[in-house]
Amino acid sequence: MSQPRPSSRQAFDEPLWWLLFSAGGVCFAVLLPATILFFGVLAPLGLLPSNAITAERMTALVFSLPDLAAIGALICLPLFHAAHRCRHGLLDLRLGNDGINKWFMYGLAALLSFAALSLVALGLWR
Amino acid sequence: MTHRALSIRRYLPDQDQASYWQRYEVPADDSTSLLDALHYVKEELDSTLSYRWSCRMAICGSCGVMVNGIPRLGCKTFLRDLPHELRIEPLAHFPVARDLIVDMDVFLDHLAAVKPYLIEDAAVGTFDPAAPTPHRQTPAQLARYRQFANCINCGLCYSACPQFGLNPEFLGPGALALAHRYNLDSRDSGKQARMPVLNRHEGVWSCTFVGFCSQVCPKHVDPAAAVNQGKVEAAKHTLIALFKG
């Protein structure tokens, strides 16, 4: 049984999605749990000093240039990581068409990333 | 000496297009391998059973079968390590030719596509026995690819790979591991010829890092690592191609 000649089309986009996925995986595994621990567990339990999270401090922290990078690491990259996993999950379940799923998943990640970064940028500019 | 039950998925296309299960009782002790058990069936119980085997020592890679749904080499699998009821099937994801014999042409085509041999840039001159020019390689250079060179082409990783099951056009773990093995070899200069084959959707990018290929590999080649190191190489290849235009 001989196979038909395989396609020689290069996957120029895949390295980009994979690099975003890999970078997002590291952020998902390291930075996101630390953030959740800080804001989601320690702060509500009152284990942080009372002045650690105040409205003024948070405003100054969120609307700053370093926070643009932090949002990229905490929201944008994990979004692309999740989009990559969802796309391959759909492929495994044989749902939809991979070409369309790709546009939808990475498009959604790009849109949400843009929204998150825009919010910070708007706050900086105001 | 105890007796063990062996259910084998039979497929005899000259008699019936449907496969069926057949149960055999085989004597077994602590040293009985699955291949020994199949030999017993063939020689003592049912000479119509067909299966592939050759070396009996996990070198030839012929006797791969599904054991209770997991791909394994018959010769390297001992009944003492397995549950009492055994269900033996031909390797998954390959077309079945007869009983436990599968058609591995798809794998061999994928293997050929990645050029799994040393490619030299310079033209090979005539061999002069008086002044041989060996390829020198340091232990460190050998260590880079040695693990990936242990592949015996048994195809267990293809039966373990859900992506190959979904899309047989995917080059698959075995071929990609061997491509990586030659790409890492200091004596080889064929990487430029291999990368366009690897950097396709059906190349390294079809792998979703399930990792089952590395678990079932009887020679500990770790094809999943090879494929994912191949993704780094394919990403580099793409970047270089973009800059070169």
Automatic annotation (TrEMBL), chain A:
Lineage: superkingdom: Bacteria
Membrane-spanning residues: 16-48, 60-83, 103-125
Keywords: Cell membrane, Membrane, Transmembrane, Transmembrane helix
Entries under InterPro entries matching the protein: Fumarate_red_D (IPR003418), SQR/QFR_C/D (IPR034804)
Key word Phosphoprotein present: no
Entry protein name: Fumarate reductase subunit D
Organism annotation: Halomonas dongshanensis
TrEMBL record, chain B:
EC number: 1.3.5.1
Cofactor(s) required for function per UniProt: [3Fe-4S] cluster; [4Fe-4S] cluster; [2Fe-2S] cluster
UniProtKB keywords: 2Fe-2S, 3Fe-4S, 4Fe-4S, Iron, Iron-sulfur, Metal-binding, Oxidoreductase, Tricarboxylic acid cycle
InterPro entries noted in UniProt: 2Fe-2S_ferredoxin-like_sf, 2Fe-2S_ferredoxin-type, 2Fe2S_fd_BS, 4Fe4S_Fe-S-bd, 4Fe4S_Fe_S_CS, Beta-grasp_dom_sf, Helical_ferredxn, SDH/FRD_Iron-Sulfur
Catalyses which reaction(s): a menaquinone + succinate = a menaquinol + fumarate
Residues annotated as domain 4Fe-4S ferredoxin-type: 141-171
The UniProt record lists the keyword Iron-sulfur: yes
Free-text cofactor note: Binds 1 [3Fe-4S] cluster.
Residue ranges of every copy of the 2Fe-2S ferredoxin-type domain listed in the record: 6-94
Pfam families linked to this entry: Fer2_3 (PF13085), Fer4_8 (PF13183)
Pathway: Carbohydrate metabolism; tricarboxylic acid cycle; fumarate from succinate (bacterial route): step 1/1
Superkingdom as given in the UniProt entry: Bacteria
Family per record: Belongs to the succinate dehydrogenase/fumarate reductase iron-sulfur protein family.
UniProt-recorded name of the protein: Fumarate reductase iron-sulfur subunit
Organism the protein comes from: Halomonas dongshanensis
